[in-house]
Amino acid sequence: MTQRFAIGPRETATLNTSGIREHFLIENIFAAGEIELTYTHYDRMIVGGAQPAEAALSLPCPESLKATFFLERRELGALNVGGAGTITVDGTVYALGNQDCLYVGMGAKEVAFASADAAQPAKFYLLSAPAHAAHPTTLRTQAEATPVEMGAKETANERTIYKYIYAEGIQSCQLVMGLTQLRPGNVWNTMPSHTHDRRMEAYLYFNLPEGQRVLHLLGEPQETRPLWVSNEQAILSPPWSIHTGCGTAAYAFIWGMAGENREYTDMDAVPLPALR
Q1: Whether the Cβ atoms of residue 159 and residue 189 lie closer than 8 Å to each other
Q2: What is the pLDDT of residues 54-81, one digit of tens each?
Q3: Ramachandran area for residue 163 (φ above 0: left; ψ -120 to 50: alpha; else beta)
Q4: Distance between CA 19 and CA 17 in Å, rounded?
Q5: Is 194 annotated as a binding residue?
Q6: What's the CA angle centered on 177, arms 171 and 180, to 5 degrees?
Q7: What family does the Swiss-Prot or TrEMBL record give for this protein (predicted)?
Q8: Is 201 flagged in the annotation as binding?
């Protein structure tokens, strides 16, 4: 498990391209037969991916957590962006298709990820945050998620938002998780942009066609910085930063938050003329 330390807006404003990428871009989320984890000091969120091949993968407990098992003091969200697979939690098997989500509560000791077909592996995107209470392990399929239609064709941001783990959905301590799918011909996400100083956020961009990219924007509204992001790469967004992007083609992304509350609508809008 690698670590990312938190930095503020003053330090971020001095970074060049490589510095921005080093602090805020996670380039390797999925690797065949591996679990990749990144520990960030923004609300102590762990961002990662599990891509099981022929054999199942057990969720490790990195020594740096100083715990006897991974979810001793944590909760976990897993959203599948690959082929069909299963997640086994303390002996109970949960089947997840593409874009299905499983919440695993604090106290679960054994978590294992498997693919139904190694030739079309499952890809479980993982988010974990510290927890203070045990909530039930709960599966929610995309068909059961709460869809919200947003945007307009005229502003190139028609999109459907699917909410899985949030105040009115799957219950958690502080984790919030969902998915946004842009419609064909639409490229802007999270626009108009916003901040929420009470919560950090992480994005996983996926379903981006071969050779295409997303230009992700971060930083204070008056001091923005660009990141060119490839398919199945993730970005970290500090609480003080905007998080918005424009693709060279339509795509999808998973958003996840941890921090002060679980209110999806808790955000501070930034008027377009205020962006710099």
Answers
A1: yes
A2: 999 999 999 999 999 999 999 999 999 9
A3: beta
A4: 5
A5: yes
A6: 135
A7: Belongs to the KduI family.
A8: yes
